[in-house]
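B., you asked whether I could sanity-check this one before it goes into the benchmark set. Here's the sequence:
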Amino acid sequence: MLEAARTVSVDRLNARVDGLLDELVAFRRDLHAHPEVAHTERRTTERVAARLRAAGLEPRLLPGTGLVCDLGPSPVAAGRRRIALRADLDALPVADHCPHPWRSTVPGVAHACGHDVHTAVVLGAGLVLAELADAGRLATGVRLLFQPAEEVQPGGALAAVEAGAMDGVAQIFAVHCDPKLDVGRVGTRIGPITSASDPVTVTLTGSGGHTSRPHLTADVVFALGQVITQVPSVLGRRLDPRSGVNLTWGQVHAGSASNAIPATGTVRGTLRCLDARAWEEAASVLREAVEHAVAPYRVEVDVQHHRGVPPVENEAASTRLLDAAARDVLGKDSVELTEQSLGGEDFAWLLTRAPGAMARLGTRTPGGRTYDIHQGDFDVDERAIGVGARLLARVAVLAGTPTGDLPTA
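And here's what the prediction gave me:
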């Protein structure tokens, strides 16, 4: 009896997503053509809110940009709880080089990370779940969370938490575009799936002077060289190498003349770490390593290390729920073990408030090109929208199913 009910539910869910797919693709293309960077996603927020209102739902706008929308049974009812499905709304300050008619109309801004896809996926899942709720076939409450500003630090997830977006949420799920996976496949992993990511700025100040008399100056250029070359190596020796600590410099500036030693110099980069415990230690080790590297050069040092995001750590039970949902709606061979990446994702902050998991959503056309995210020519196979909507809608259905009734393979 239970298996029959599950089969009917899967068939109905897939059919309803398929019926929405043309609309969801058009919705995604509209967002792609009108991208908005972090904290400016006003049009995007309103487009999502308007569609939810048209479905009879009551979205609640977050301060600034972003929104949440609750549907399904109230968690105050006996035995009920609420899960959340999260999407991010912002685009990147990158020029769009995609060849399609829906390329960005905003100079220097593009959805080069697939957040337009994430938004369409959660919207589609939400519309299907709202229908199931109206029919009395949704056993758990669902909150749709469309957060702003994932691409900046501190990310919009923290602001959403402060605004109450995670209040009452017992479990949370998300997807992220993965151009290395074929469309129709998802990647999951128990434990850390992304990296901690922190911006680092080191500024050195000295007396400056003529390059013919370096012994009479505090040579910030030479000292910066020591910071650039030595500090990453020190981190690799002071912290557990299994934690994957990586400090990479992306910007260095000092001086404007070849025969003058400047009075100030700055180097900026990103500290990444695969392990949350090593991430906690990294701040003090970084500062000590910089100070020791420049100590012989009589320069003043200022280290700005801002905690960005911790690693996204997928909870085991939530990951198994994603796996079960994927096998239900995509096929038994649709899931693969994904690698942990050094990229950062502020979904990690939401996981500090409730357990959950993020799946990697395949966006590559089978046999086609592998694009890279955060590049202006990033492109997706739009069938991934339907795949993601099926996955998250099914997760919400299974979240109300006793654990013992979930498939194991």
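One thing to flag: The CA atoms of residues 124 and 389 lie 5 Å apart. Otherwise nothing jumped out at me.
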